[in-house]
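Shipment paperwork, digital attachment
Item: protein structure file
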Amino acid sequence: MEFKTQHQADWEKISREVAAKIKHPLLLLKGNLGAGKTTFTQNLLKALGSTDEVTSSTYSIVNEYETPQGKVFHFDLYRLKNAAEVFDIGIEEYLESGALCIIEWPEVFEGELENYPRHEMTIDNDGSLRKITFK
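Attachment content:
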């Protein structure tokens, strides 16, 4: 699926469409700083029925949210330097829990995720224009 947007309000619609397509418990979010990864996650959790306040997980590395379908874990691996640091946070327990795990900046750990069924979303931004690819 591909989307293009220039407006903040479009994230809600995009998130609802993506929420309906999620079949795997792992979603990797890729994009540069300011691309909209956290904004998408906020809207996705809303589309999944969460009433929790969704914040950036940059400083806490992982945040946990409740939805009617169960827990969702939101990771931000931006500050982690290698796979060993990711293992140190106990990511395997989260991944094996069956809960939806949304991982921003997954590149440092992507090789270790090869055997996990997953979705990937890439957000390319050029000023206010965003091109979003979900697979």
